[in-house]
Structures are given as structure tokens and as C-alpha cells.
Design a protein that fits this description.
globular; 423 residues; N-(1-d-carboxylethyl)-l-norvaline Dehydrogenase, domain 2; 3 domains; Rossmann fold; 14 strands; 17 helices; eight-stranded mixed β-sheet; alpha/beta
Length: 423
């Protein structure tokens, strides 16, 4: 193996598992993050993110002697950039972290090095932004050092499995760069490794998440149509999906996370004149939290002063990731309605809730409220027995905005029950 020592820049949901996986497969890894609290925490064994199995993997990587943490890079054989690429309020890609990471590599870049960008990025970021920064070193991309783009394609909650098993796409600025990336990732990847050029690899990642976003928008718009016509959208979707070539997704309170709710905007930004469908789907899904609150107002009357206990704040079930979560947007809208909110997010009880009250247990969340609002289908919530909940709460109304509960059981327990997409 040509690459004996590597540096992973960014120790978040992708960078940390990537660094640990390389380390447990025999490669010396320096994990770098500009957040010194994260670095110090990892040095002391504190894991700042939740992912099933990650704590054990980090411990194994450190005990192997192959993984260390520090706030800046040094000379190594290969660099992997896995920093965030959030969206700005104007729906533009914020590439400050990518640029800063590339700049930090420049003083340490040597002839023969490989640099791989994993951060989700707009098309041509590798060629038009990262390449010129790295060439400030005096070395030329493709001639003196190798450069590739290889997007992460993993599902939170299954990262440690999918980082190894999923197909890996590697796009080089030239063939040698793509082959070098394949050599490095072959250290642990068991799935297929497909080689292409950098811009195609960037496009592939954006296409995957945009495809999913459009399909979710379809389900959410069907919900609004079903509401208009007095149709149970869950029943209609179940019947429609009996067609052999139809697979409609489930509706919900919106789309969150760092990928699906963000990546399509990168395409709209890069080519607004040829992406009207992408743009519209984003607007549908971004508008779903407002639809949810309007629906609650229509069903329940004024929300001002109502004591509402919100179950779940993460952007999807059984993870702690709050990035771009539609539940957070719903909290903000309910606060604008002057609702009295209590929030219980079991995976991140200290999440930011504004003026809402955060609690650390389900019992505390249910103790004094009028309405129970389910926004995230965590197992802890979907497995609740309504009869038991009835004994724990003063609430008389249960509202399900993510499809986690069944009407019959809640009504049998004495609750007035409302569900997204169900008349």
C-alpha cells in the first residue's frame, strides 16, 4: 500500500467514522478538526456525535495506536477533506470550510501526495475551487500531486456498515488520480469501486439526493391533495404501491439533514435555468413545516397558549442529527403562534430549542400538557402504548405528523387523534 499515513480533515458524521475505519484497517491516521473542543474531547475519549457502534470503533482505533487527533494537518501521504458544506440563507453553497481545509493542506503538500474531497459540493468544485488553492503550493495537480472527489453515500444510523459495504464512486481530475483513490479506499471498501471524472462524481452525489427529494415532495404534495379531497393518503399510497412500477414514499413534516434538504440547491445554484423541477420540489418540502402548523391550527383552533409536548427534534428517526430538521422549523412556527412548548429529544436532550422548554425524559414531557405532538418516529415513541400514555399525561389530544401512530389505539385510549394525511 502506497499510502501509509493519511490526514482526515473534519471529524463530524463522515470524517470521524472514515478516520477510524482507516485506522482499524492498519493505516496511520491524523484526525484534524479546527474545533479544539472536539479535538480535546476525542483525545479524552469523548464522542461528540451519536452513531450506533461509533464509540466502540473510536476506542478500537485509538487503542490500535493508528489514530491521533490534532487541530491542524501535517505532512502525510494522503489528505481527505470531509468538512461541512452547509447552505446559506440565500440557498447558496457555503464552501468556506472546504476552502479553509484546502488552504491548510498547502504548506504540507508534497510531490506524490493524494488529496480527496469527500464533502458534498456543487459541480466543478474540485476542478475550479480546490485545484487552484492546492496549486498555491507550487505543485501542479495531475503532474505533481493527485486529486479526486469521492462523495460519502451513507445513511445516518448505518454509517459504519455502509461506509464499507456501499458502492464507492471516485472521480479523479485524471485517470491516475482516480486509480490512486481506488487504491486508498480499497483498504476497507468491500462494495464496488467505480471510477469516473471529478465533476461526474460530484453530479452523481447531487443527483442521488435530488431524486429522493423530488420523490418526497411528491408524497408531501399528495398529502395536501388528499387533504383537499377528504382522502386518507396512507390508504391511497398503500393501494397505489401495489402497482408493480410504483413506489410512493411516505409523507412527513418536511425534509431535513445535511444532504437531501441541501444538495438539490447546489444544482439550482449552478444552473437555475434548467432545474425548475428541482427548485419546485425544494419549495414543496421546505414549505411542509408551515403546512403542518396550518393544519394543526385548522384542526385544533388557536394554538396560542396551548401546552404542546413535542416528541422528537432530529431530522429523522433514531439519530441525534438536528441539521436542517423540519421539526426545529415547526418549533419556531409554534413559538410564533405563542404556544407553550415542551420538547423531548431522547438522542439530543440539550438541543437548541429557543424559548421552548427541553426535558430529559418522556415522563417530564408528558406530565403537564394538552397536546402530544409526534414529529419524529423514534422507536421509543412509535412503541408507546396509548393506554400507558393516558396514565402519564393530562393531554387529551394526540397529533401524529410523521406516520408513527395508529388512530384506533389512541382513540381507544381516550385521545382525540389527528394524523397527517388522514381525514
Amino acid at each position: 500500500m502506497k499510502y501509509q499515513k493519511i490526514c482526515v480533515l473534519g471529524l463530524g458524521y463522515i470524517g470521524l467514522p472514515t478516520a477510524c475505519t482507516f485506522a482499524t484497517h492498519g493505516i496511520k491516521v491524523i484526525g484534524v478538526d479546527i474545533n479544539t473542543e472536539i479535538v480535546r474531547g476525542l483525545q479524552n475519549g469523548h464522542i461528540h456525535i451519536f452513531e450506533p457502534g461509533l464509540r466502540s470503533l473510536v476506542q478500537d482505533a485509538i487503542q490500535s495506536g493508528n489514530l491521533t487527533f490534532q487541530p491542524s494537518p501535517e505532512k502525510v501521504d494522503a489528505f481527505i477533506i470531509a468538512v461541512p458544506t452547509p447552505i446559506t440563507p440565500e440557498k447558496k453553497a457555503d464552501l468556506k470550510a472546504v476552502k479553509a481545509a484546502a488552504e491548510s493542506i498547502v504548506p504540507h503538500l508534497q510531490s506524490g501526495n493524494l488529496v480527496i474531497l469527500e464533502s458534498t459540493s456543487p459541480p466543478r468544485t474540485t476542478c475550479d475551487i480546490v485545484t487552484p488553492i492546492l496549486e498555491k503550493s507550487g505543485l501542479k495537480a495531475g503532474d505533481d500531486f493527485l486529486l479526486a472527489y469521492s462523495p460519502e453515500r451513507v445513511l445516518p444510523g448505518k454509517i459504519l456498515e455502509e461506509i464499507i459495504q456501499n458502492t464507492r464512486v471516485i472521480g479523479g481530475i485524471d485517470e491516475s488520480s482516480a486509480l490512486a483513490g481506488k487504491e486508498l479506499y480499497s483498504t476497507f471498501v468491500k462494495g464496488d469501486i467505480l471510477l469516473t471524472n471529478a465533476t461526474t462524481a460530484e453530479m452523481v452525489k447531487l443527483m442521488e439526493n435530488t431524486y429522493r427529494d423530488i420523490n418526497i415532495a411528491t408524497a408531501n404534495e399528495f398529502t395536501r391533495l388528499a387533504d383537499r379531497f377528504g382522502v386518507n393518503v396512507w390508504e391511497a399510497i398503500d393501494i397505489a404501491n401495489r402497482h408493480p412500477r410504483v413506489n410512493i414514499l411516505s409523507p412527513g413534516p418536511g425534509v431535513g439533514g445535511h444532504c437531501i434538504s441541501v444538495d438539490p440547491w447546489f444544482l439550482v445554484e449552478a444552473a437555475p435555468d434548467v432545474s425548475p423541477l428541482v427548485h419546485t420540489a425544494r419549495e414543496v418540502n421546505d414549505g411542509q413545516p408551515s403546512y403542518v402548523v396550518n393544519l394543526m391550527r385548522r384542526k385544533l383552533g388557536t394554538l396560542s397558549g396551548k401546552k404542546i409536548s413535542i416528541l422528537g427534534l432530529a431530522y429523522k428517526a433514531n439519530i441525534d442529527d438536528l441539521r436542517e430538521s423540519p421539526a426545529i422549523e415547526i418549533v419556531k412556527l409554534l413559538l410564533d403562534e405563542k404556544s407553550d412548548l415542551t420538547i423531548f429529544e431522547p438522542f439530543k436532550p440539550d438541543g437548541l430549542h429557543g424559548k421552548a422548554r427541553a426535558v430529559n425524559s418522556l415522563e417530564d414531557a408528558l406530565q403537564d400538557c394538552e397536546i402530544i405532538l409526534l414529529l419524529v418516529a423514534h422507536h421509543q415513541f412509535t412503541e408507546l402504548v396509548p393506554q400507558n400514555v393516558r396514565r402519564m399525561t393530562t393531554a387529551t389530544i394526540a397529533v401524529d405528523m410523521c406516520g408513527g401512530w395508529q388512530r384506533q389505539a389512541w382513540e381507544a385510549a381516550g385521545f382525540q387523534f389527528f394524523k397527517l394525511g388522514q381525514p
